[in-house]
Design a protein that fits this description.
With about 220 residues, the protein is α/β, with parallel strands linked by helices. It is built from six helices and 13 strands. About 25% of the residues lie in helices and about 30% in strands. The chain has a seven-stranded mixed beta sheet with strand order 2-1-3-4-13-12-11, sandwiched between helices. Strands 6-5-7-10 form a four-stranded mixed beta sheet, covered by helices on one side. Strands 8-9 form a two-stranded antiparallel sheet. The longest helix is centred in the C-terminal third of the chain and has 13 residues, at about 200-210.
Length: about 220
């Protein structure tokens, strides 16, 4: 019998994280919702959820020391997954209503408002899975559930030497193309909500859990 992967969902005050916990449990993980540093470091995987404003989310993550946990895990090649604003804060900065907030800087670039007639982008949408994606294995043609007004709309990270290039998945809303997911060594993130994406989201979470014990070589910047 294979080992049940342990996952910590970082409890930093983000709303409605119970659905994330339930979805991960249904996908086969043992899940703790906590901000305890030791447990977050020891778990096989760490999930960083986020809803609402960029500035508020990054402040909440920093308030519980989550930024240090994320950095320490990634330095050791330990898997981290961001969801929604949890993806956005991995970039250098976010710009909301003309106010810039500093992010975690794992990836270069800025999160900005979607340039579409209808914002927020709310509902089901298809994706353009990046070549070689493990996360979207078997679900490349499925649709996922998005709720957001801001996104990372450019990818600025260049490949470094022999290190595997990140796998970037894209989506479009109102003609505006934005990053839907990134797989970058130990760091994975989705702009959409896998926990609200039905069978496709469940498969994606199982794909991520299956990789927790795998080789996670590659830089996270």
């Amino acid at each position: 019998m294979s080992k049940v992967p342990s996952v910590v969902v970082l409890d930093h005050g983000s709303g409605n994280v119970r659905s994330v916990v339930r979805a991960l449990e249904a996908a086969g993980a043992h899940v703790d919702l906590t901000a305890d540093r030791a447990r977050a470091l020891e778990a096989d995987g760490l999930v960083v959820p986020g809803v609402g404003a960029y500035a508020a989310t990054i402040a909440q993550v920093r308030a519980v020391g989550g930024h240090r946990v994320i950095e320490q895990r990634l330095a050791g090649g330990r898997p981290v997954m961001g969801i929604c604003v949890g993806l956005q804060i991995m970039f250098e900065s976010g710009n909301e209503h003309g106010e810039r907030s500093e992010g975690l800087g794992q990836w270069p670039g800025e999160v900005t408002r979607l340039q579409a007639d209808i914002v927020p982008h709310m509902g089901w949408n298809s994706i353009e899975a990046g070549e070689g994606s493990r996360l979207f294995d078997g679900i490349e043609d499925e649709r996922f559930y998005f709720v957001h007004s801001y996104a990372a709309r450019t990818w600025e990270m260049e490949r470094i030497g022999p290190i595997a290039a990140p796998v970037v998945t894209w989506a479009q809303h109102g003609g505006d193309r934005f990053i839907a997911a990134v797989e970058n060594g130990a760091l994975t993130a989705t702009q959409f909500h896998p926990e609200k994406s039905g069978a496709a989201g469940a498969r994606l979470l199982r794909n991520w859990l299956a990789g927790l014990g795998a080789d996670r070589s590659g830089a996270h910047a």
